[in-house]
Amino acid sequence: MITSQKDVLGTELLSLPFRKEELEAILEDIMS
Amino acid sequence: MARKKVVTTEPSSPASARPVRKRSAPRRGLEAAEELVETKRRRISTHPKANIGGELQDDLTDEGRGNESPAEEPAPTPTPRKRGRPPKATIATVAGGGPPTPSKSGVNGVVKTPVRTPAKTRALNGVDTPNRRAITDRSARRKSARALIDHVVGDASSDDEGGSEAIARAIYGSSGSEDEDEDGGVGRRGSDDELEGLHSTNATPSKTPRGRKKKATTARKKSPTPPRDLPPHEQYFYQNKPGLAKTSNNNLTSLGLLTHDEYFTLLRESKDQHEEDIQFLQYLHLESFPQWAFELSQGFSICLYGYGSKRQLLHKLATHLYSVTDDHESSKIVVVNGYVRKTTTREILSTIGSAVDSSYKLASGNQVTMLQTLLSLLSSGGVTITLIINSIDAPQLRKAGTQSILAQLAAHPQIRLVCSADTPDVSLLWDSGLRSSFNFLFHDCTTFAPYAAEIDVVDEVHELLGRKARRVGGKDGVAFVLRSLPENAKNLFRLLIGEVLVLMDEESGASGDNPGIEYRMLYNKAVEEFICSSEMAFRTLLKEYVRLRRNPATFTVSSPGFIMPSNMPVDSTTTR
Question: Which ipTM did the prediction report?
Answer without folding.
Answer: 0.89
